[in-house]
Amino acid sequence: MAARELSRSLIIDLLESPNGTLYAVLIASVIVILTTVLYLLFGRSRSRGRSIILVGLTDSGKTLLFSRLSCGKYVMTHTSIKENKDQYKLKGKESGKTFDLVDLPGHERVRSRFIEQYKNQTRGVLFVVDSVNFPREVRDVAEIMYDILGDKYLSKSAASILVVCNKQDLTMAKSQSVIKSQLEREINTLRVTRAAALQGQDGGSTSTAVYVGKKGKDFEFSHVLPVTVEFAECSAKGQADGEADISAVETWLEKIA
């Protein structure tokens, strides 16, 4: 109690001194800085969810990746209109912590509804891409990515996204660098067509969307901060009877824990 009174007395003396205004500004600045630091260290981490959602087109291999992460097994998968849920136990220095894994249906008619349902709980997005069929699916992949990047809630919550370039065990698989560059070009084109469509609707825009990238510049994934987008290569199936190669995905999960 005495310490509190002493601190209050010192502050009053400083404010009543000839340089009182300067001291007031300094004290206010310190309070703002401390409040910001405390929020970044504690408040933001509490507000972010503990769910990792797996998103991608049908047959991209996301459900097999879900199975590899949740139970470490290869399973035969099939198209579903319901989500799969399980827990992922983190390894390494984050051992003991868990994420809630949610594998969302790949079918277009239900995918958006499930993203809307789970986005408030989302810490990160595993965006699974079929590296072999990517050239003919790039438009559809870009559409999904655009909707995720343009979501106001996911942007505000600084969601982390890992584009998982799957099926790297196959000969015709495209590398992550090729997929990244082609996806950036496609999203850049898509951004123009989406903007034109909005202008055709009385020049309005939806309140739940944010501008994807930087205005006046070609789209790059580095332009969507505070959302972070990274790329990694993996093989959820693996070679013949061998184990899958999903180490890059596991490393990313530990990083965002």
Automatic annotation (TrEMBL):
<dbReference type="Pfam" id="PF09439">
    <property type="entry name" value="SRPRB"/>
</dbReference>
<keyword id="KW-0342">GTP-binding</keyword>
<dbReference type="GO" id="GO:0005789">
    <property type="term" value="C:endoplasmic reticulum membrane"/>
</dbReference>
<dbReference type="GO" id="GO:0005525">
    <property type="term" value="F:GTP binding"/>
</dbReference>
<comment type="similarity">
    <text>Belongs to the SRP receptor beta subunit family.</text>
</comment>
<keyword id="KW-0256">Endoplasmic reticulum</keyword>
<keyword id="KW-0812">Transmembrane</keyword>
<protein>
    <recommendedName>
        <fullName>Signal recognition particle receptor subunit beta</fullName>
    </recommendedName>
</protein>
<dbReference type="InterPro" id="IPR005225">
    <property type="entry name" value="Small_GTP-bd"/>
</dbReference>
<keyword id="KW-0675">Receptor</keyword>
<dbReference type="InterPro" id="IPR019009">
    <property type="entry name" value="SRP_receptor_beta_su"/>
</dbReference>
<keyword id="KW-1133">Transmembrane helix</keyword>
<dbReference type="InterPro" id="IPR024156">
    <property type="entry name" value="Small_GTPase_ARF"/>
</dbReference>
<feature type="transmembrane region" description="Helical">
    <location>
        <begin position="20"/>
        <end position="42"/>
    </location>
</feature>
<keyword id="KW-0472">Membrane</keyword>
<keyword id="KW-0547">Nucleotide-binding</keyword>
<dbReference type="InterPro" id="IPR027417">
    <property type="entry name" value="P-loop_NTPase"/>
</dbReference>
